[in-house]
Amino acid sequence: MAMEQNNNTSQPQKAMLFALAFLLSLNHASSMYTVYNPIKPRHSRLLKSAVQRETPTSQLSELWAPLENHGWKPFVESTKPTALPEKSEGYIQVFLDGGLNQQRMGICDAVAVAKILNATLVIPYLEVNPVWRDSSSFSDIFDVDHFIDVLKDDISIVKELPDEYSWSTREYYSIAIRETRIKAAPVHASAHWYLENVLPVLQSYGIAAISPFSHRLSYDNLPMDIQHLRCKVNFQALVFVPHIRTLGDALINRLRYPQQADGEMSPNYIREVTGASASNAGKFVVLHLRFDKDMAAHSACDFGGGKAEKLALAKYRQVMWQGRVVNSQFTDEELRGQGRCPMTPEEIGLLLAALGFDNSTRVYLASHKVYGGEARISTLRQLFPLMEDKKSLTSPEERTLIKGKASVLAALDYYIGVHSDIFISASPGNMHNAMVGHRTYLNLKTIRPNMALMGQLFLNKTMEWPEFQQSVIEGHENRQGQLRLRRPKQSIYTYPAPDCMCQAQ
Predict the structure, then answer these.
(1) Are 408 and 136 in contact (CB under 8 A)?
(2) Domain region containing 251
(3) According to the model, what pLDDT value does residue 369 have?
(4) Position 29 confidence tier, pLDDT thresholds 50, 70, 90
(5) Per the database entry, which stretches of residues form a coiled coil (predicted)?
């Protein structure tokens, strides 16, 4: 009997030990390929030619030339805003998951839902990201007072709930089913759905908490004033806190005036570049690699790291998604031919080189952790030796203020991305989509990689550089920021025209 009891009590311990051993083997396998199997270039023939490339001055001038005026401009309210209703229907809380850019879209939708319901919005709650484990709040990222002031004529906003509703917390909803929690909001729900399902809860309890709240409002069939309000939130109300903007401005100056950033960096957090004029400002590209471990594993593609890398990614898929990844039913060649493989740092470097960017191009690397680390980035650095990132551009004192804060780092990258001459993302995603929309709104150049074309070109192992370069240039001729009107079901945050913009008279 005692033996039985002892065996029973040891089962959880055995399970924990097994799980720990599995995770340790996963981490070991994940690092093995970088230690024992150095990452070699997958496109040596193209890389050799790209390193020796010479770009004509005329081609460089065309690359850096700003976009032509496309005849559209940001929508500006021409009428005096109507007064807010005297009585609010109650308080709306939203709990936003995902990364910063997904949360940004959720904030815009939350304001729109509050307007639809005539409710008072509580400053949105940002969930802890399970991947980056960042607990940054709304006020750590966005200027709350600015947010409230810009929207004061549109909806009522409060920083915190009044004492009578102080029980409505994240913890309160996580331990039991609650009548004030709206859990069944469908993806891209209509305005009618909110009036039918959320308004009665507000009227009964004075509060409604919507969780999860990500992509929970339709892009179509909404009143134009609601669409305009979403645009106003995204492009006017959501401003980063001063210290993010200050550091962002400092890094932008260091990219534009590198000759003035030589020598030891000042320990001061604010390091202004003085005496610099716009006439001698340099240009720079922001490159968002989007090549982290999650991305690599979920794609089910082969990235040239050998058997150890394949094993590590397969085990990671098993831990994260129980091995269930849609792409895994296709071969690597099929996935690449369909443009479903994220480009490696080497491949996005070859794309940039083929477009005409040379080794004098300043590139800012906007990424968190790159899968494979410096070994994976080395070929990109070989092509663009003037490549910078947050670490190379900041002092140790500055880094201590942002270290480990993934959302703050993402906000910094977003800010620099909006202010760059050219932005390009190696693979589509929330950062890419948000940046395409924001830069379209400002009429700035943004290169959208032709993933299917690039996948097919990289499958051709005998292609010479002139043919590769010509194919890349022709395939990206109309993918450099030209305005595209939003179609049904497309995101208003990626395609701001015509909802957020109007044709200039």
Answers:
(1) yes
(2) 43-69+242-291+342-503
(3) 81
(4) very low
(5) none
Q: According to the model, what pLDDT value does residue 271 have?
A: 46
Question: What mean pLDDT do residues 143-172 have?
Answer: 97
Our count of domains for the chain comes to: 2
Tokens of 287: 């490159």
Distance CA 244, CA 251 (A): 11
Residue 78 falls inside a structural domain: no
Maximum Cα–Cα distance across the chain:
89
Do 121 and 206 sit in the same domain of this protein? Answer: yes
Q: What is the pLDDT of residue 80?
A: 67
Task: Indicate the SS3 state at residue 197.
Answer: helix
SS3 track for 355-387:
HCCCCCCEEEECCCCCCCHHHHHHHHHHHCCCE
* Predicted pLDDT of residue 145: 98
d(CA 381, CA 378): 5
CB neighbourhood size of 228 (10 A): 17
Percent of the chain with pLDDT over 90: 68
Look up the pTM and report it: 0.88
Q: Are strands 207-210 and 181-182 parallel, antiparallel or unpaired?
A: parallel
What number of residues does the chain have?
505
**Cα-flanking dihedrals φ and ψ of residue 132, to 5°?**
-90, -15
Whether the predicted pLDDT of 74 surpasses 80: yes
Residue 455 domain-assigned (yes or no) = yes
**Tally of CA atoms within 13 A in the half-sphere of 259 that contains its CB:** 6
Please state, in angstroms and as integers, the Cα–Cα distance from residue 364 to each residue in 331, 367, 385, 390, 425, following that order.
33, 9, 11, 8, 12
